[in-house]
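Ticket reopened. Same input as before:
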Amino acid sequence: TQLLEQSPQFLSIQEGENLTVYCNSSSVFSSLQWYRQEPGEGPVLLVTVVTGGEVKKLKRLTFQFGDARKDSSLHITAAQPGDTGLYLCAGSNYGQNFVFGPGTRLSVLP
Amino acid sequence: DAGVTQSPTHLIKTRGQHVTLRCSPISGHKSVSWYQQVLGQGPQFIFQYYEKEERGRGNFPDRFSARQFPNYSSELNVNALLLGDSALYLCASSIQLGPRNEQFFGPGTRLTVL
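Engineering reply: fixed in the latest deploy. New output:
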C-alpha cells in the first residue's frame, strides 16, 4: 500500500514569513500533485510535477519533486493571510490509484 | 466552462438508510473518481471510473458502489449507512489516464449520518 506523509501537520506563522512543507513516501509515483483546500470545499489543484528533480514556480509558491520521485516540497515566500488553508499532496501512477497525504494546515496571521 | 458539479450539497440520513450521491464531470473529461474525506484527514480514494469501466477501488466495504453513465456522469451509492460514514464526499474528474493526469474536484457533498 502506498502512503504519503506530510510535515508539519500544523503551521502558524506571521504574514511575511517564509515556510516549507514536505511530502514524503517510500514509494515511487509517476506524478505528484499539490492542492489547497478551504473548509467545506473541494481541493483546488495548484501544480502537477512528473519529472524527478522538477521545480515549478507559481507566483510566491515553489514546488519541487525529488530526484527519485518519492518526495516533494512546497515553499511559500512572504506568506499572506490568503495563503491560509489545508495543503494536500497526492501521488498517482499514470492517472490511477491517487493517494493523498493527511495535509498540512497552514494559518497565516496578519 | 462549468467545473465539476455534485449534488446534493448537504444530506442528513439515519443509520441503516441508503444514499445516492451524484457527480457531473467537466465537459470532455472521461474519468471520474470518488473520495471520502473525514474531518481533519486527507481524502481517501473510493473508486475510479474511466470510459464507464471501474479502473480502481479503494479499501472500502461492499456497501459502497458506484457507476458511470454514457455521458460520463457518475453516482456513488452507500447502503446500510453507519455513523462512521459521515464525511465530505468528493468527486474529481480528469480528461484521461496518463502520466500527467490532473484531477479537478467538485465542491463535495457533506453527508451526516445520525
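Chain A has a mean pLDDT of 93. The radius of gyration of chain A is 13 Å. Please confirm and we'll close it.
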